[in-house]
Design a protein that fits this description.
This protein has a nine-stranded antiparallel sheet. It has an eight-stranded parallel barrel with strand order 20-21-22-25-26-27-28-29, surrounded by five helices. Strands 5, 10, 13, 16, 17 and 18 form a six-stranded antiparallel sheet that branches. With about 725 residues, the chain is an alpha+beta fold. Bound molecules: alpha-D-galactopyranose. Keywords: Glycosidase, Hydrolase.
Length: about 725
Amino acid sequence: MSIHANPQTGLFTLETAHTAYQLWADGQGVVHHLYYGPAVGAADLRGTEYCSDCGFSPQPAGMDTQRTYSLDTLCQEYTGSGVGDYRIGCLRLAGPDGSRLADLRFAGFEVCPGKYSLPGLPAAFAGEEGQCDTLRIRLRDAVSGLEVTLLYGVFAEADVITRAAVITNGGSGAIRLDKAASACLDIPFGAWELIHFHGRHCMERLPERGPLFGAVQTIRSARGASSHQHNPFVILAQPHATETAGECLGAMLVWSGSFKIECEVSQMRSTRLVAGISDDDFSWTLEPGASFTAPEVLFSYSNEGLGQLSRQYHRFVQRHIIRSVWRDRHRPILINNWEATEMDFDAEKILGIARQAAELGVEMFVLDDGWFGSRSDDRSGLGDWEVNEAKLGCTLDELIADVHALGMRFGLWVEPEMVSPDTPLYAAHPDWVLAAPGRAPATGRSQLVLDLGRPEVVDYLYHIFHRLLAEHDIAYVKWDMNRNMTDVYSHALPPERQGEAACRYMLGLYELLGRLTGDFPEVLFEGCSGGGGRFDAGMLYYFPQIWCSDDTDAVHRIKIQYGTSFGYPPAAMGSHVSACPNGQTGRTVPLATRAVVAMAGMFGYELDLRALSAEEKEAVRGQIALYKQLQPLVLDGRLDRLTDAAADRCFTAWQFTAADGSRAAVSVVALDPQANPWPIHIRLRGLEAGALYRDSLTGGVWTGAALCHAGLTLPILRGDYPAVQIMIERTEPL
Ligand code: GLA
């Protein structure tokens, strides 16, 4: 059992392979956070707490004589409200008497084997590698009857501790929650830097790193989606932490809607991190007996640098978040028609692209936006999911049969959560969109957001898409979502419950995704929101991969995939070779380099391959053959970021190593070839020191130690963005 509970002392220690986490319910019932870091054996860490008589930090009632005891200075597991802790808090509420107070005290615990579940929410599961134990800590406010159950899932082997909170009204009057965070992590000591992942549409998740300081720093999305601009994943790192050394810990929300992660360095220099759904425009009324479940946060810690922390998340997301049967399967190399045709196509054009792709070895054809209703541009047709046979010139089944005849599987784009104002669906149900009475709602990409908080909307969409998947032989679905929320108002909710609308939308979406992915487990789902606008662990619970960005410029993609890789596995990143000059940037990058970059994720093509020269087509054949060999490394291997791709100027490099250490693939892209150049020299990582490896660059045989310490020097790379891939194979001594 990885959880040690001592009811006498009130100490709880959670142990993973390399870390420990300790909390303590003291005699007052206040639950302190004592420690999260490298394993410390069975140590009782109560003596490490710093308690001082800090002026203007009040004592809880009854503790007047103990001036060193203040909720304002203690490190805590979850805060109450309004009773003496002035730092960022976990809860804001209004009780039946109108008071904003909650004084949470220990009311019991439970330890049990296995992983708790969060009904209605995506959450980590134990799975077949099922090492997980659960700790439940119950907190209670004696006056209002509010109860908070803190949930801890200890994944010992994975070095991950999950947390969530269930807030229950155990009193007799209604309680309105205005903030309901998932978890608080108080770190008693140390100066920490915050790394977060910032961006925009077509340039998502670039890491930004800076010191934490006394002011509150907030990473948030208020868009009703986790967003292109921010990601619900942050890292706290010691100032000197690098890829290969130093302390760092991550917090990843399993939530796809508006969120908030706040950090604050307190007056006593402890660091507090509070994570959860966004409390902006949020409220939730709990009638007596009702509960609200705050989504899960995945915490992981490493003192071996950011690379190791990322690998812990990669493995955890792959093993304990992604449920799809596709997780470990060969993912088909696909061709998507979007960048080649946008919505200007008919079956003949589509089949022309498909035919060429099949001939070169592509395994699946994906028909993107524009196949349904009156959808001839991005102003119309969403919600009218009837196949536009007049436009295609055939039925969907005929098109699918033709694609199958080419030896390829067939995939389809959908955008279920939206409606265009010109559709019969909107005319029939104007109250099914997010819009407030008397106000014309704002549009985004000319579309409106369906109110998925309404069960009848979820049912309607379920039947439409269930039918689509049941009636046609569709092997893959690209599930898109192309605008953010405005006018967040649900016609199904009374005025006093409007603060629940955005959150109920997400719960409705999760229900819909759970039903559809459950009914069609063999369908490979790829998430998308204008590329990576909803790239989060919540979505990955349903979709094993997500289209990483609408920017397919390979040089930009290096940065986007690099930033994404801090928290999310490369196996989750959809990544395609597109045409040049690139549609988004106008830049021309060699085909070989585009392929090298796309091979760092789930590989495919998104261009009309007929336009390539005979030589390029031959190259595509080779790329497909090579990727088939490399994909197992990307799905299940170890990623090392050999350079800092966000800052690299001359070249960038990364390495995938097979889980069994038998082979590795190193990719190098020169960004700015030099005259009279310095050598490009790279040192590999993660190879077995004493084992022998042959590298495809020099043909030489080296020990792993030699490759990792002495490294390899590349030949001079000239021209625009040349790339080199070096294969490293384990070999026996001669
Ligand atoms: C979004 C997606 C694109 C494409 C278009 C279709 O922008 O990210 O890949 O599917 O929608 O409208």
